[in-house]
Amino acid sequence: MAIKYVPYFKDTISGQAILDNFTRTKRILKYADNNKVNERIERGLPLYETEVTEIVGEESDNLVIRGECLSACAYLKENNIKVDLVYIDPPFASGADYAKTVYVRRNPKVAKAIKETEQTLDIEELKSFEEKMYGDIWNKEAYLNWMYENLMAIKSIMSENASIYVHLDWHIGHYVKILMDEIFGEDNFINEIIWHYSWGIRTEKQWNKKHDTIYMYSLSDNFCFNASSVLEERKKSEATENRLKYKGALIKDGNKGRGNQEKALPTDVWYIATINGMATEKTDYSTQKPEELLERIIKASSNEGMIIADFFGGSGVTAKVANDLKRKFIHCDIGINSIETTRDRLLSAGASFKIIDIKDGVNLYRNPVQTMEKLDKLIPGLVNEDSVDEFWEGVINDSTLGKIPVYVPNLMDSSTKILDVVLINKIVNQEITKLDDSIKKVIIYYIDIIDRKEIDDFIKDNLRIDIEIELRDLKEILNETVVNDVIEYHIESNKLFVDTFISDRLIRKIDEYNEKMNSQALSTGKKPNLIEISNEGLELIELISLDCTSKDGIWHSDQEIKIDKLGYVIVNGAKKDYLWDGTISFNEKPLRIKVRNISGDESISIIND
Ligand SMILES: C[S@@+](CC[C@H](N)C(=O)[O-])C[C@H]1O[C@@H](n2cnc3c(N)ncnc32)[C@H](O)[C@@H]1O
Question: Which of 2, 199, 358, 571 gives 20 to 30 Å between its CA and that of 535?
């Protein structure tokens, strides 16, 4: 449950053309001739308790926040933290689920395997499987409503002269532009930037889509813009031709190495290549944007020491570039893989920061998509059935009551998290009335209820059909989704030797993968490409960290090794050219050990004497 609701800066700009086919946060109660408008935004931004889980490097103001954009903004607003520049690259409503390739490492315990890995390994040869990272399938209205709340929340924590860049593409960009006019004001619209790239397949059937769109707004005319730090190369012939005509727009470049080559003031069409598979900045986070893109934005729209925030941070590109350019950063993301990828990336870059976990009661299993998938299996008896409306997640077949439709909130869309009068009204007065007469009972899962009595009274006063409504707390099921991995080890002088690593969640995942491969092999007649895991299971480890500072509370990684997908180690963020040998050395006595498996699940245990 939220501790309280922090007010949004909730004024939109009057007089703008607005989209009228979605409800924004105004959700209308249409029942019993009552057209009362219930504004969720009036309630404010949900502020939850937070926990600092790790401090990396020196004490600093830089933050990596695990949680939703809305609750991260509530945290910042409550702590009077204002940001000077925002870049967001939110889900685009692309209709796709984004996956991460999980690479099984080499088992250092098996001598033969070590020998094999000494030869240059091709990534193609590595054993891997896919895991969903985040889902991006929305209907337009739900997406716009969600985006409206996020943008209103972000506006609430922007400093007086701050700018915001919102990165989208053809799927939803034009709608969001209108929404942004409403929120930030058309007069504060600075420009639409075209990020042009050549990546992706091409077809002869139509113009190939090769650009994304970035909308830039500022809160005042006094926004920061450093044109001279983002000058563009001008093609020589064009420069010569236009020199006389447009003299004012050309600047002499003092760069000695290139002579007096002319540079031009920056424009709004940027050709920047997408990240090449071999690029050192590549992190394997799908949808990762190139550092060069962020470098341009941050250099132009901020100065050293300013705070740069990205609330849909993904691979951590904004935080990384901000840190390189001596700005402060705030990275927020809802998925654990983003937080881990960013943490490791920032650690390697020598950044100092705090990791904060927002305790919103939703114990996510890695990320919202994977949690939703898992829930379908965890709710006893739940089966997805086409016969009920899409509002219901599925049905439970009960021997006495027959089909029981089950409603589960969508973890991707925070507006469905709270069971309030608006939602129960929708259920009682709309959704239940559409059900078949044979239905005797429905089950409603919720995450938060603001006022249980209000909901019970509402049901009593409004339910006109003979049907039972059972309310169940989804958090109880979510708590069951996490089962820790087990590491066994022994210590000899200043070295910890990992003996075995058992991860039931990964083994189950790999079993599922192998089953799929076997059935594909049956239909194709080809030998299945199976993943085999040794008894020791060390090939399922991605990172080991030792805390030599404290036995509980905030994590201090005093010594850590990360194993890359080829089996090479990264020690305390620095890449090495040798393979992992199944050990980790330390100088001070370790008190706790943290292990991260290749899917990103982390387990902590105390090291006993
Ligand atoms: C397109 S990706 C961002 C990629 C990033 N710009 C990069 O270059 O790596 C969108 C991210 O938004 C995150 N996300 C989705 N819904 C969110 C929410 N409500 N709050 C915070 N993050 C969210 C997803 O986990 C995903 O990492």
Answer: 571
For residue 53, the surrounding DSSP H or E stretch is strand 49-56
Q: Determine the distance separating the centroid of ligand 1 and the alpha carbon of 338, expressed in angstroms.
A: 8
Which tens digits make up the pLDDT trace of 235-289? 665 556 655 555 555 555 444 444 445 789 999 999 999 998 788 999 988 889 9
Residue 505, pLDDT score: 79
| Half-sphere CA count of 222, side-chain side, radius 13 A | 4
- Closest protein CA for atom 18 of ligand 1: 68
Q: What is the Å distance from ligand 1's center to 385 Cα?
A: 30
Residue nearest to atom 5 of ligand 1 (CA): 314
Q: Which residues pair with 131 in a beta bridge?
A: 100
Give ligand 1 pocket residues (Cβ under 6 A): 68-69, 89-91, 134, 285, 287-289, 311-312, 314-315, 317, 332-335, 338, 367
Based on the number of CB atoms within 10 Å of its own CB, is 276 exposed (0-12), middle (13-18) or buried (19 or more)?
Answer: exposed
Enumerate domains of the chain plus CATH numbers.
Answer: 4-23+44-94+137-227+276-359 (3.40.50.150), 103-114+482-606 (no CATH), 232-265 (no CATH), 368-480 (3.40.1340)
